[in-house]
Amino acid sequence: MLLLLAALPVLFWDAAPDTAPALQDAGIAHIQVPRERLAAWKSVSGITAQAVDPASALKLLAPTVNYRMQEATATAAPWVINNGWRFLRRPGGHYYYDVTGNQAALAAAEAFAYGADAMIHTDAAGLKPLAQMLSFLGAIAGESLPPVADIGYIDDGSAQSGEVMNLLIRDNLLFKLVPSADRGLKVNVKIGTRDYPLADAKNPGLLAHDVRYHLTDERRSVRIYGSPVVVARLTGSGGHLRLHLLNYAAANRKVDGIRVRVLGQYPKHQLWLADGAGVELLDYSVDSEATEFTLPDLPIYAVVDLSR
Amino acid sequence: MPGPYPGQVVRVHSENSIDSATAQVNRPLVKQMIAHGLTELTGDARVEDAWARFISPNDVVGIKLNCSGAPNIRSSPEIVAAIAEYLVAVGVPAKHIYGYERFDNQLQSVGYPKYLPEGVNLYAAEATRSSILGYDPKVYVETDFFGEDDTRSNCIRLVTETLTKIVNVPVMKEHQAAGVTGCLKNVAYGDFSNVNRSHSFEKTNTLTFIGTLANVEPVRSRVVLNIMDGLRGVWHAGPFSEMPQFRFYPKQIMVGTDPVAMDHLLIDVIEAKRKAEGAVSLWDRSMAHVGRDNSDPNINHFIREPGHIEYAGKLGLGVYDSARIRLKVIEL
């Protein structure tokens, strides 16, 4: 099975080298710069620079949550703005974030969780959070494992199909793109078929519900209880899983506890939590069907390694 | 529940229990009202003997407060204090008494500590709103109402792991979704997480969810006594009390072990008040009366479900049939 090397996101910095002290103070040691600035940055000691063309990268949305408190909406669920589906649609692509403050750390974590090649442009307030996250990611990086999916999704490349993928990610319905139905997966989804009619896809939320209905909650590889703003990504094979947990509300508040259910028996665990020293998984239980635990604190990003 | 006195309810009314002009509560009189209610219910001459039927010195006792309309309306501190004093009198150490609620901000807004015996604990399951950490991950009801992703409602861990008995202190209130919020709802939606999802839309799932939660062990067996605070009440736009025109003063306390019988009588109290005010019945199901502006007493956010009480009766939680409810009324 192909194992990909996890890529680390990089700060894209378009300011002149006289800003180097701010980067060094934050703990940034490697940056990407516009080609025309490369020569100047090469003379700065302690920071390595690489030339890139951000125009060649796909610009992403700033990962966040839009609560829409004062707006009439079809759902009371907070709107999670994530880029996971874009990464899955274009594996191997180059991506560009333009984010501020704490969002820089979340952007880095999001890209890392999906193994995406991303550059992150941020402001002065984002430098330290980004540097801390990059340091954390560097410590846990290694061979990335293949994604775990319950659903095979046949993407027709349309905007409508993209929005369905977006909602599947938000609802923690784990999928991977397949060219045709994969009988090794629990459910296969193609818009325009009897189970997933085109009419339903006009309301992508409804189609995501259809997918969940056909999959059933009991067969979902991951369930998250206690927060509507946490997105999970699961990778692994054999007796080892790596669970990525992203708090999309991180710029404003940490999540005070989620209960996680992972299908299968995994008696051993290791928690890696960005910005959360001393936190341990609580009420860890393994039954005949699933492994459950409580993560009491999720500031931005956590990784849980599970094994037999 | 329904405990040793199914279908039996004692109502103690006193015109002097609260001053409806100032909302000042007559604390000694309220304590007497509780004593009369309990001795009438049990047939004991001494109130301590009546309490001893429900609580032993070895118990760890929770007083289930209702602070959902706090600070304007909540389990009256004078009633809660009297209960705590009686518990201490029957030998329960103050440190083994917990006044508890789900939301810390609501609980803190009341100011219970200055009323309670020293050493009595106050506990909120959610120190920060929506935190799951105060709930037991092993005790939950799992159901999917409308496709929500979080399908579990977990019981407060204090209830499952610490308390051995619960004294339930609901308040006489109309509830926009459930019809009324009395004994059943205070131990159901007041002891479990993630319950708002049952009333996300005009047509709610409160009819079955309230009784289902109240029926969960250990809640069902640990609630040994209900003391309903009817000094103040809310007859519209409950459970909150943001519009003072919908507050009223029934000036009574109901005592019993049967939450269904008591809540059936609560329907009668709220329904009578609404009728007197010219408001539509709690049982009205017309969509013409559903709307956003509930400053009009004939407009409500939801279709109410007072039938949740009869449903709970069918689960065995108490007696709903009016012909089998024995109400004793005491006037002080």
Which short descriptors sum up this protein?
heterodimer, A: 308 residues, alpha/beta, Immunoglobulin-like, 4-stranded antiparallel β-sheet, globular, B: 332 residues, 11-stranded mixed β-sheet, two-stranded antiparallel sheet, 10 helices
Q: How much of the sequence of chain A is in beta strands?
A: 25-35%
Question: What is the end-to-end distance of chain B?
Answer: 28 Å
The first-to-last residue Cα distance of chain A is: 20 Å
**What is the tally of helical segments of chain B?**
10
Descriptive account of the structure:
- The complex is a heterodimer of chains A (308) and B (332).
- Chain A is α/β, with parallel strands linked by helices and 308 residues long.
- Chain A folds into 3 domains: 4-142, no CATH class; 151-219, no CATH class; 222-307, Sandwich (Immunoglobulin-like), CATH 2.60.40.
- Chain A has helices at residues 20-26, 38-42, 84-89, 103-113, 124-140, 159-170, 198-201, 204-215; strands at 4-5, 10-12, 30-34, 48-52, 58-59, 64-66, 79-81, 94-98, 117-121, 143-144, 151-154, 175-177, 187-190, 222-225, 230-237, 240-247, 258-263, 268-273, 282-286, 290-295, 301-307.
- In chain A, the strands form 6 sheets. Chain A has a 6-stranded parallel sheet. A 4-stranded antiparallel sheet of chain A has the order 14-17-20-19, with no helix packed on it. In chain A, strands 15-16-21-18 form a 4-stranded antiparallel sheet, with helices on one face.
- In chain A, α6 packs across α8.
- Chain B is of the alpha/beta class.
- Chain B has one domain.
- In chain B, α1 (27-42) crosses α3 (77-89) and α7 (206-214) packs across α10.
- The model of chain B has no long low-confidence stretch (mean pLDDT 97).
- At the A-B interface, loops of A face loops of B.
